[in-house]
Structure formats: C-alpha cells, structure tokens
Specification:
Chain B: This is DUF4350 domain-containing protein. Chain B: Keywords: Membrane, Transmembrane, Transmembrane helix. Chain A has helices spanning 3-55, 61-75, 80-100. Chain A is mainly alpha-helical. In chain A, α1 (3-55) packs antiparallel against α2 (61-75) and α1 (3-55) runs parallel beside α3 (80-100). Chain B folds into three domains: 65-169; 182-313, Diaminopimelate Epimerase, Chain A, domain 1; 369-452. Chain B starts with a helix and ends with a helix. In chain B, 35% of the residues are buried. The chains are: A mainly alpha, B alpha/beta.
C-alpha cells in the first residue's frame, strides 16, 4: 500500500476513534459519578432514618416497611434510579419516625 | 481571558475536523478510475455497418447450382464470369498429383443466396469465391503479410489452394512461397504519379475504384500532408511497380499510402515500427470480408485509415499529448493526504486536551470553602456532643452521619454540589440540636462566623 493511502486509512480510523472516545469517556464518567452521588445520598438518608428509628420509642410499622424496602434496594446495588428510590423511601421513613418522636 | 482562549481552541478543533472531512470528500470525488485505458479518445468510428451498405456486393452473379454442377462435371477448372482468383498452375497441379480434383472459381461480391448456390455444387472439390478458398469442411486463408499481399494485390491464391488440397488429400502441405515480384517504376510512370501527388496529394491509377480519399479518416490518421497512390488490382504474374522507396526518396518526411487493389502499404516516417503492425492488424481482422466481397477501394482505404487512427491513439507511437489546462485539483491532489493528516493530528491533540479538561476531577482549585465548612461543622458537632441529652442526641447523630457522608464524598471526589447538599443537611440537623440544647451560639451560622472571623 502506498503511504498516502495509509495516511487516509489511518487518519480516518484515528478521527473515528477520537470522536468515539471524546463522546463516550465523558459520558461514562458522568454516569458513574451520578451513580456514586445518588448512592452517597441514599446511604446518608438510610443512616439518618436508622438513627431516627433508634431514637423513637414506639414502633411505626409503616416507616419500618419503608426502611426495609430501602435497605433491600441498597443491598442489591443498582443504578442511580434505584439509589434515588432507596433514598426516597428512607427519607419518608425518617420523616414518619421524626413525626412520632 | 483563559476561558475565551479555551473556547477559541474548541472552535478551532471542530473547524479542523470540518477541513479534514472536506479534504477527504474532495479526495474521494477526485478518484476517477475507469477500465478505459485509451491514450486518448480515438475519433475513428466504431459503429457497425450493415452488410451490403459498404458497396461490397458486386454486379457479378452466378448460374444455378445445376448449371454449375454440369460445368464442373465437364471441366476440372471452371471460372465463372467475373472471377478474379489466379494461381500458379504448375504448383497446384503438383499438389493435386493426378487425383480428380475439380475447382470452381466464382466472382467476389456475391450475396448470401448466391454463395449458398456455389457451396451446393457437390462435385466441386475446391470452391473459390472471390479469393476465399474452401473445400470440404475446410477453408484456407493467408496468415502472413506476403500472403495477404499476393492475395489482395494480384488475386493470387496459390498458397491457399496448395494448402487446402494437401489437407484434403491428407498429405503435409508444402511451405508457403512468396512469388510476388517487384520492378522499379519507369521514369514516365513515376513522373506522372509525382505530378499528381504534388498537385493534390492523390494519384488514382486507371481502373481504381476510388474517387477521393475519405477526408475525416485521413485527417485523423495522418495529418493533411499524406500522399495517397491508389492503383487498381494488379495483373497476376506481372511484377508490381515499387513506388514506395522511390516516393520516400523524394519526400522522406511524408507519410505515403500505397494501394494495389485491396492491398495497402505504408511508407514514410516510422515505417519500420508502424507499417507491419498496421497492415497485420488490419488484414488479420478484415481478411475474411475482403476476400469474400468486392469492396470499393475507397471503403477499404477508409477502414485502413480508421485502424491507423486507432493504433496511433493507442499511444504506441510518438504523438504529442493533447494540451492539458492547469487544474488546481490535480496539482493539489498529492498534498491532500498530508493536509488531512495534519488536520487529524491537530484535532487529536485538541480532543485529548478537552478530554482531560472535562475529566478533571478532584484537586480542582475551584472548590472554595467546602472542606473548611466540613471541618468547622465537624468541630461544632464535637463541641455540641458534650452538651446533648436524650432529646437532642438523635439530631446530633444524624448530623454526624451526614458529616461522615460528606467527608466520604469529598474523599471520593464527588462533585461539590452534592457535598454541599450533605453539609447543608448536617448544618440543619446541628441547628436543630442547638435549638434543642438552647445555646444560640452553637447554631452553625453563628458558630462558623465566629470561627472564621
């Protein structure tokens, strides 16, 4: 193969590769970050709810069910949506306990 | 300033990508390859010509098959009126060698029905139509330039007859012999020819079937300065006047086309390279038609000149290239790959730069006071923890949980807004704690202000 032809081929492949990488890498990075942020928030919410539960003297079945569900979701891991759902359940449980506390 | 520079770099990056794509497209569109590898587009016509349209059918006709059969029965060699084929009786007789071999000679230019009548004469061992020699399942034709010359200049079919008869008898054929003889043209002959040529470039001998040289074909084949000498078919057994060398001596730089009946010779510039090639390619292709039919010399010459044009346009001989105007694309084509490569390289460098910027995570100097706030709130939580009781403990514990989460997030390099949200939550819990404890100076806002001032 002649050098110019190689230049065209290699250049085309490099362009495609660069375009692919500049699109995929930041997107993957931001999704990973979003996932970790969501789980960080979810874990914090679950911790808070646990503290509220321990501080409450009476039992609140509704809140316990919500927290159990949140902990189950957290145990199974998953994407940002799962994390947000777990955080939501935990927050609602937290509020229920605080209302009774 | 820095941000504007970065934006310009980004614009430059996409501009480079655009240039690279444009260059690629130009390169692809400039790829014009075809299977046609002609030196130029030969202007010789290539359209098919209907049979009979070129005047190849003569006036001569033949009797009915029965009559011809009777003639052949009566005489071993029958020459029908208009027949032109001649041969060396002695050699043919030697080839026959006493067997009963009957030869029927028909004129050229017969149409399909007439040829069929001739072929149906069963008792004729050998049929000669024009100069086409056939017999049994065989047909004999010349395949060398001397053979074609003898056949078309003088109607000599001796070699073909000898070969065919030997084949029919099943004996090996004797080698071909070139019996054609030449003579130098006499002074008055040459003077007459040269006089005609000098006046209009064309000499037509008495009896030649040509009125004028086909103009377009002649101009495409040679320039207008060629000389044409057209003589009728020459009598068999007599030497041919050798005009070629004599005329070449008179005008060395002039293409000279000599025609003896259906035989065409070229003399003049590049004769050694050109004449045999043109003659061989022309007669190899048209030998069959020329021998069977009775073409006017004008049409034979036109076909020959077309062949010459094709050969010259095939690029075998020196002929100046047509003028090619300046074409910027053709000049730029060799540089295009390197322009493309440069664009790609610059685009890659800028892409890597932008990738690194967009992936830049922790250690970013724009984080401001978030770690300090975390430290302050943590200190506040530690201080308040000394004063809490059962009522305020849950809020404090929750705030410590939030602070731990914020610290983990900070350590993991999670984005600042998330850490700030966690700190806000922790601050709200601490605020509750301070309210429950009843010490306003432990409210986070107060406390942090006091510490920072």
């Amino acid at each position: 193969m002649s050098p110019p032809l190689l230049v065209w081929l290699a250049g085309g492949v490099l362009l495609l590769g660069a375009g692919f990488l500049t699109t995929v890498l930041p997107r993957r990075r931001s999704r990973e970050r979003e996932r970790r942020v969501a789980w960080s928030a979810a874990r914090a919410a679950i911790d808070s709810a646990e503290v509220s539960r321990d501080a409450t003297t009476e039992r609140v079945p509704e809140a316990e069910r919500l927290l159990t569900r949140a902990e189950l979701i957290a145990a199974e891991r998953g994407g940002p949506t799962a994390a947000r759902a777990a955080a939501d359940y935990a927050r609602r449980a937290d509020q229920l306990w605080r209302g009774h506390g | 300033m820095r941000r504007r520079f970065a934006r310009h770099l980004n614009l430059l990056r996409w501009a480079l990508l655009g240039v690279a794509i444009v260059v690629l497209v130009v390169f692809l569109l400039a790829q014009r390859q075809s299977v046609d590898v002609s030196y130029g587009q030969s202007p010789a016509p290539s359209a098919r010509i209907e049979e009979g349209a070129a005047g190849e059918l003569g006036d001569a006709t033949v009797p009915s098959t029965d009559e011809m059969t009777a003639l052949v029965t009566a005489d071993p060699v029958v020459r029908l009126p208009g027949a032109i084929a001649r041969w060396d009786e002695q050699r043919v007789r030697a080839a026959i060698g006493g067997h009963d071999t009957r030869i029927l000679v028909a004129p050229p230019g017969l149409d399909e029905a007439e040829r069929k009548r001739v072929r149906k004469v069963r008792n004729a061992t050998v049929r000669v139509i024009g100069t086409e020699v056939s017999g049994g399942a065989y047909q004999a034709s010349a395949d060398t330039l001397p053979g074609w010359r003898a056949q078309f200049a003088t109607g000599d079919v001796t070699d073909q007859l000898v070969a065919l008869i030997a084949k029919l008898r099943g004996v090996p054929a004797p080698p071909d012999r070139d019996d054609l003889r030449w003579r130098e043209p006499s002074g008055p002959e040459l003077a007459a020819v040269v006089g005609d040529l000098r006046s209009d470039g064309l000499h037509v001998g008495a009896g030649a079937t040509l009125t004028r040289v086909p103009e377009n074909a002649a101009r495409a084949a040679f320039s207008d300065d060629a000389w044409y000498v057209v003589l009728p078919g020459q009598p068999y057994g007599e030497p041919l006047p050798r005009y070629g060398p004599a005329l070449t001596r008179l005008a060395p730089d002039r293409p000279i086309v000599l025609m003896y009946g259906g035989w065409i010779e070229y003399h003049g510039p590049a004769e050694a390279d050109f004449a045999d090639l043109a003659g061989a390619s022309f007669y190899a292709q048209f030998e069959g038609r020329l021998s069977r039919y009775d073409y006017p010399q004008q049409n034979v010459l036109g076909a020959y000149l077309d062949r010459v044009t094709d050969i010259r346009y095939a690029g075998l001989f020196d002929r100046p290239l047509p003028y090619r105007p300046f074409d910027p694309l053709r000049v730029a084509l060799p540089a295009l790959p390197w322009i493309f490569a440069a664009c790609v390289a610059a685009f890659l460098v800028l892409s890597v730069r932008s990738l690194r910027r967009s992936l830049g995570g922790p250690g970013d100097p724009r984080w401001g006071g978030t770690p300090a706030r975390l430290a302050g709130l943590t200190a506040l939580a530690v201080e308040v923890s000394l004063l809490t009781d059962a009522r305020s403990n849950p809020a404090l514990t929750r705030s410590i949980g939030k602070l731990q989460a914020a610290r983990a997030a900070l350590d993991d390099g999670l984005p600042e807004p998330h850490v700030r949200t966690l700190l806000d939550d922790a601050a709200a819990e601490l605020d509750d704690t301070a309210l429950v404890v009843g010490i306003p100076s432990y409210r986070p806002d107060h406390y942090l202000q006091g510490r920072l001032s």
